[in-house]
Amino acid sequence: MKPADKHKRIAPPTQLKPRPKAKEKVAGSSPVRFGAIIYNVAGAVLSVLFLTVFFQHNEQAPTSANDTPWNYGYDWVKNSMLASNLKQIEENPGKSVEEKYLLKWGPGEMVYVNQIKKSVPDTGIVLLPPHDFFRQVGFVMTQNGPVLQPVGQQNVSKFSMIDIPWITYFVYPRRVVYGDSVNNPLYAKANYLVSFNGWGLDKLNYKVEKPTQFMVLSIKK
Amino acid sequence: MFILIFFLGFSLLSLFRDFKITEKFALAMPIGFGLTSFLMYFLDRTIHSITATGIDLSVSLSIIALSGIRYYLDWKANDLPWKRPRQKIDLSWLTLVWVVFAGMTAYLVYGISVKGLYWPTHDFDAILGYDLLSKAIAHEHTLANSVLTSPEIVNSCGPRLLYPPLFALSNSLAYFNGLETPGLVTTLFFISWAFIIYALLRRFVSSSGAIIFTFLTIMIPEMFYRASVCGTNLPCAIYTSIAVMSFVIWYEQKKEGFFYLSLLAVIFGIWTRSESILFAGGIIIILLYIAVREKRYKYLLIYFACIIPLLLWNLFLKAYVPRDQTGIFILKPFYDASKLKQVLTAAWDIMSTKNYYGITFYITIAGFFLILIANIATGIAKKENKILAGGSVLWVLVYFAVGANLFSLVLFALLVIAVAYVNGDKWEFMLIFFFALAAYTMTFYQMKDEQGALFGPGGWLQSGYKRGLFNYAPLGLFILVTSKWVSWAFGKLDAQLELFKKK
After folding, report:
1. ipTM given for this complex
2. Residue A44 touches partner B, C-beta closer than 8 Å
3. Which residues of B touch A46 (CB under 8 A)?
4. Which residues, numbered 96 to 125 in chain A, qualify as contacts with chain B under a Cβ-Cβ cut-off of 8 Å?
5. Among A50, B97, B149, B293, which residue has the fewest nearby CB atoms (within 10 Å)?
6. Confidence band of A31 (pLDDT split at 50, 70, 90)
7. Both A106 and A214 in a single domain?
8. Both A87 and A166 in a single domain?
9. Do B296 and A7 lie within an 8 Å CB cutoff?
């Protein structure tokens, strides 16, 4: 049949056969056939065997693409990724979102983020240290999550508190502005400040008695 | 609110009589999300305020309007639902093979849903993109919010913040409802996905074939993993798969409703990620063929509506979003054999990497060879098949002479499409697939490779291309299972396995 033949108009099904009366039986099933049971049992056994092979666990991680078993991806998602996650979830019920982030990424930058959220009201605008300052103290993020890493270490990317979308996501609806963004309209409106290693204490209109390494402070008292 | 969204999708699908009740249940959630996102956009553009009350109200009114239309049509045709004959329960599809694969699929979907609902958003693309936007939409009640209008944030986020807004708007529904994370949205998409695959495949293949390939599609490793991570690729793949499969059902089985479902799904796909336009392009080629050959222009003209979301979003971005104009594409045509080879090699490396796509693309290729060989072998008496057999031999010689390059790959695609066309084996499906995949791959060829941005680790190919293949991996599996040979084989198998004969 040519494809074009398929689009010739045909009569709607309602015109071809009369509609059955209400409550008339239009379809149904007859009881189990014995012969089919045998085929089904055989089919089920084969299906289970297939799934067993499909998800067979490979103890050793492949060293190259050539020695990667054909089912490596399926094995990984079910026996490693899913199994370990379900176990971790079962062992850590009732955690808050903050606690889950700490569980996932470890106690790195998230500790500071949580402190900003606790100290600054939703309407607050937070002045963060300048970008260069963050780089000097080692605020960079590894591929495995935001942890404090020495600058220059391999396998680091730029995402972290140094990155405005990243920090905005975690402290939103609070707004943030960096110490070197003096032309940003938010700079003059900032009412909170993140002090790190003493940075920013000179911007306060009061004196901090016992400065610590990391503080979230109101700019005016 | 999510229940309302489900009913919105359900009532929209109920406008068409072509869908089975199971299909309506499967498709209701993603269609509901898509429609709700347009309602939210409409609220934003008209009253400049997206609120939970506004959404609830507009969704409820839409449900009432759509249900009212359905009721009116049924009443006019004297075919009200409660007057229709009751269907007796049909269990002819139930086999033990079905039970085993359905059980495994259900366990896996349950497991990944638990994971997705537990962990908060931790994917960089979500944090630095659409989930950040979702939070701002929910809190500031507008799309043009402090995130999307801040030059500093927009230019730091890059394109991930500027995807069309369906996913960001859907995620914001979670925040509107007081949830702390949007995991529920991705979970609802994925649960629906499992049912959608099965429901659409059942249009072509018996129950055992449909459930086995539902399992294989659900289990595509990278897609399965991403089902628990907040991301746009999975919803986009769901919409594009619905669009293509519905179009094939319309073309093959003349079910009018599926044409409109395809259009709706491709619109929602483009409203999620612009790259879905490639599938619309493939479908429009088929519609152009129908228009020219059969002098029927209606469907072609209607399908052009799919560019509306692209226009809407780009106009919005132009009006409100301060963007740097540095593009990532080379805008003039060029030929660089070495770059082309590098792109094609990298593309196949990604497709064949076991922990990304498992054996999915191997199954797809096996499907193409099956369609090629089985159709030519059984129809060799036809003159056209003799020519195509000669073409296939030529292709083998070309392949062994030059390997997998642009010429040999295009020749192979043309052969498969031609064989499918001559032998009535869903040529339109092959054409859409090859057109979209080729155009998608060539998009990366047109990208600049400054400082390893294209080929480097974590570059566009390694991250973007990899996840963009979500649109193609399910379709690759569907091509095999819906081919007339495989569906015939499963039909025979299920005839033997049938426990309850259909009366």
Report:
1. 0.89
2. yes
3. 97
4. 97, 100-101, 104-105
5. B293
6. low
7. yes
8. no
9. yes
